[in-house]
Amino acid sequence: MKKVVFFIFLAFNITSAQDFTDSWEGLFSFTTIVDIDESATAVYAASENAVFVYDLSSRTFTTLTTVNGLSGDEISQIHYSEDKSLLVIGYENGLLQIVDQNGDVTDVVAIKDKQVIPPDNKKVNEFLESGDLIYIATDFGIAIYNLERLEFDDTYFIGNNGEQVPVSSLEIFNGFLYAATLDASNNLRRAPIADPFLIDFMNWQQVNPDVWDEVIAFDAGLFAVTVGGFLAEFNGTTFANNITQFPSRVLDASATNDFLVFTLNNQIIIYDTSLSQFLTLINVNGESFEFTQAIVVGDDLFIGTEVNGMIRVNLLNQTDFEFIVADGPSRNAAFSIQTLPEELWVTYGSHDIFYTPDNAALGISHFVEGGWINYTNDDIDGLLSVPTITINPENPTDLVVHSMNNGLLDFIDGVASTRYGINNSSLTSILPPSTFFVRIPDGEYDSQGNLWVIQQQVDFALSRRNPSGNWTAFDVGSVFEEVPSGSSTTKLVITNDDKIIFGSTDGGLIGYDPTLDQFTRLTDEVSEGNLINPYVSALRIDQRNQLWIGSNLGLRVLFNVNSLFSDEIQDARSIIIEDTNGIPRELLQDEAVLDIEIDGNNNKWVATASSGAFLFSPSGRETLFQFTTDNSPLPTNSVNDIAIDEETGKVYFATNKGIVAFQGERSSKPQENLESIRVFPNPVRPGFDGNVTIDGLTERARVKITDIEGNLVYEAVSQGGSIPWDTRSFSGNKVASGVYLLFISTSDNIETTVSKVMIVR
């Protein structure tokens, strides 16, 4: 009886996924292929949490990501139904998503949300379509979904006494449904497909002992593969005819009319209808790969790989091959990002909360001119665990790549130049005289062209390289006693007058005045800084010279950053807001803040470890928006980093599951005067439905817009260097065609200017 209620519950857990293509862009990696399927015209390849579709005739790509409505969760299987024109996507958490030919995505959350199934038992392992039904092999048993009615049909718990068992593969053969299980006590089972009582576990007959990865029909036979790699053929009663033992575990099996394909980690073995080995592929053009999946389409073999995307190899001529990878970064797990106008740099080398590095050799990526350039670890001279890069503001093609293992590297015009370590700079190793363990979490250029970097677990944790290339180290241990004994510096910012401020994991906030050669420090003690705790995870100075300080437990603001270097240090303060019940509380109380960014309007963009990303007003007292997986294409609520392209207004969010970008309003920083006023687009042409941007403004400049007769239609005061105008008057209606005058004045009315914009409806 419980099972009947369960089925009814499944049938109604269907919702439509949101489409965010109007204002968002997905920047996902397609290098790791987890599954491949085909239609008559295309090959579908699933990466970790996105799908790309390769059109066989035009040889072009389309992609499906969270921006199109995918969940962002880990994909485990895909299946294209030619009969229904539907793409079915299965996930490790049990979610199903169904994409129709119009690109509309339907969420089927019944398995994912069902509490009687343990979270670890919901993975979708394989799809098998038959008529209107698709049979789903899962880690708890078999679920059946009706593709015509878009609802669940049945669920079979086929283990002993009806227990949940992981089913790895399914096949229908000679009137029976076969299920390969990964359970030694349940083995490989079958039941008559026409039996109306397959819900009863007693109707499932054990065919063979052992633990099984695959069961698949080919030509006129049925074949199965054990976890131990034994390939056997069904003799009508049992799988007894052992054909071979593969050298390693079979990851996937597929079949066409002519070929039976088995994918192993390091080779692909193909049999013909006589069960002779037609092809054993161990490399492509002499290079070995980690294979994940393979299918035959016509005369070609399409292969999924662990890190190299999809490869097409001609079956008859293996020298005819090509790599097929939708454009994207080298991997999804983006740790930090930096922007230039219409460019994005990405690093992948992460560290934990204590700044212990992962020592991964992952390279970096560059998004420029609408495409990706992925630099390998060799391209960056073998640097390990790269957490951040610093861009030279005087020469944006000159990058400094930081390592949490082996120093830093000048990376100029996309080419590795000089690497700096203990032998050619003031940088020091945690374990001298080793040239390794030179850990650089962050760096920044000051207005004089000096590069400042911070180090971990050494006394001289602050270093400066001047424009001539000379290095100087500064003894941070004199003010931050914990740094040589295991503590780490974290983030670094530089004030307008070139004073240095950096955080630490357990020593609070440290400031350094290069002119006076003096250190100062804020701690979590009252009258000594009033930080939430000694852990500083994020730092940013806003346009009002306020220092915003993030920690693993919330947020503090030092309302005058210069006070850090005065005789009487001010305490940092919390921002007090009212919650939905009108009760005062601290802004972001108990939230782990991972990054803070300031846009041109002095708004605060804050990345958190578990609650997505926030957009706050300049004072922080108003939450303008909170982006989460529920209301945005963020693939996870853990956001590692944020970067803002001030030229376009695009805001990038880096997560361990990929990068997404939100097209916000362009909000440039305020200017010193009104000499660079721009109005765009100008003219505003028929059909334009966006905002007109008035750019090049000073802080709190007043803009009055009138028609040609002098009637005031709009007025605003800038919060940064630009103002958006939606071309509507005070009444809320769009203004008529004509020329409109813009009267602009600084906040003190000392400087004024006039501009104009033409609107054509």
Automatic annotation (TrEMBL):
Transmembrane segments: none annotated. Residues 43-205 form the PorZ N-terminal beta-propeller domain. InterPro entries: PorZ_N (IPR048954), Quinoprotein_ADH-like_sf (IPR011047), Secre_tail (IPR026444), WD40/YVTN_repeat-like_dom_sf (IPR015943). Keywords: Signal. Coiled coil: none annotated. It comes from the Bacteria. It holds the Pfam family PorZ_N_b_propeller. Residues 1-17 form the signal peptide. This is Secreted protein (Por secretion system target). It comes from Nonlabens dokdonensis.
